Amino acid sequence: MTTNRRNFLLGGAGASVALAATSVSKVAMAALPEPVLQTTPNTMPPLVPNTGRQYNPVVTLNGWTLPWRMNNGVKEFHLVAEPVVREMAPGFKAHLWGYNGQSPGPTIEVVEGDRVRIFVTNKLPERTSIHWHGQRLPNGMDGVVGLTQTPIEPGKTYVYEFVARRPGTFMYHPHADEMTQMAMGMMGFWVTHPKAKHPLIDEVDRDFVFLLNAYDIEPGAYTPKIMTMLDFNLWSWNSRIFPGIDSLNVRQGDKVRIRMGNLTMTNHPMHLHGHEFLVTGTDGGPTPKSSRWHEVTTDVAVGQMRQLEFIADEEGDWAFHCHKSHHTMNAMGHEVPTMIGVEHRGVVREINKLIPDYMVMAERGMADMSEMEMPIPDNTARMMGGEGPFGSVEMGGMFSVVKVRRNQPRGDYKDPGWYKHPTGTNAFEWTGAMPEPSRFASEGGQSMPVSRRNRPKDIEVQIRKPGAGSAQHNH
Ligand SMILES: [Cu+2]
Asked: What's the 431 CA to ligand 1 centre distance in angstroms?
């Protein structure tokens, strides 16, 4: 028990933990490892192991690693399935189900060859189980209700025990009333470190993990709609949405690994700016070197895990996000017609006489929405938001920033603030004369000769120059 606490305190997160006040039988609980709870959605520093084999621990974005106690050579963990309140972004809280105070649950980190015993206490109003996604284990430990075990009824504690046989990137989630329980946020990450130098697993300076998840929560509501199959409106990493997702802070030159698992109902092409990466591992373990090639986007399909690696050698604030553009937005009404190019001002003036708060959306594109001070219900994430050093970032959902800094101390995960660009290295407004374009070779310098014969005679091209009144269509 003391080991358990000490481990946790060494992880640097001591101030924000509480022990579970349990409604489950106190006698039964007394023999179990103390369930450790996390009360904040902040990114906790890595949990450095002080028993068992050493490894370089991972950092869970807006999450934490579960401490264990060593019991006669067995690593013992205690997960408590329970309702939680998760702050998904500042000003927006969701009523979810999770483990040990948060959704997702804590990351479990072990070493290849470890014997692991996990107590699972059910404090949900319905039965549950845990499936250890991707693990080699005895069939009876696989966590499929009805197939390999009886369900864990409310108030009961079950124990799972197996050897973490292969190193890699895994996750855990219920295999009982799955649609409900996953839509409510029950899931967690699992990393098994190699027990010795592994030819296909490099040592890295930073190792980040997070789950891709999604919710359907009406603006102003707190609880996800559990019957939603595809039309989710909140696309999150570890049940956080931008600007609530912490940045991935690294030192320039660091070798960085990012591990992701997808427990949403659709795929996510994950895109990193400024660097190329290799996909070094999947759900099946490390990939053979001959199969690795450089990419800047990798798709993570439903139920898959991907681990990517790169050298962070370019200083700056580099966007890292899902490339489906509606996955970098937060909840909004879907029935919004495209209003680009439609001039509403006169109409709105008339409507406002009748309905003072009426507002037309997206007359010039959607970017305006990120700055609009629209009356929105309480407990609603803004559709797009997040202030950057140059104004609104106009993003939501599955978006964060990899911050690469020359002077970020080794092993320090603190947010260094916004990048200060060297003078003269930002894109800037052009205020000089615009060079006139040359249209034809004979008129000076078009490299592609244009056939005189096919040259259209009577077509007048209207070119709208940028500048004042560019949003107006003056015909
Ligand atoms: Cu996506």
From this structure: 38
Q: What is the distance between the alpha carbons of residues 159 and 164, in angstroms, rounded to a whole number?
A: 15
Q: How far is the CA of 211 from the centre of ligand 1 (A)?
A: 12
Q: Which of 368, 415, 372 is nearest to 246 (CA)?
A: 415
Of the candidates 55, 34, 311, 276, which has an alpha carbon nearest to the alpha carbon of residue 167?
Answer: 55
Token duo for residue 86: 């998760």
* C-alpha of residue 129 to centroid of ligand 1, in Å: 28
pLDDT at 325: 86
Q: Residue 306 Cα, ligand 1 centroid: separation in angstroms? A: 14
Residue 213 and residue 264: Cα distance in Å, rounded? 5
Residues around ion ligand 1, judged by CB within 5 A, are 268, 322, 324, 327
- CATH number (2.60.40.420, 2.70.98.10, 2.140.10.10, 3.10.20.90) of 2-202 reads 2.60.40.420
Judging by DSSP bridges, how do beta strands 69-71 and 74-89 pair with one another?
antiparallel
Number of Cβ within 10 Å of residue 164's Cβ equals 26
**Is residue 64 scored above 80 in pLDDT?**
yes
Is the pTM value of this prediction over 0.85? no
CA of 236 to the centre of ligand 1 (A): 9
As a whole number of angstroms, the distance between CA 188 and CA 161 comes to 17
Boundaries of CATH 2.60.40.420 in the chain?
2-202
Q: What is the pLDDT of residues 249-286, one digit of tens each?
A: 999 999 999 999 999 999 999 999 999 999 999 999 99
Contact criterion met (CB below 8 Å) for 400 and 247: yes
Query: How far out from the chain centre does Cα 440 lie?
Result: 50
Q: Which helix (H) or strand (E) holds 182?
A: helix 178-183
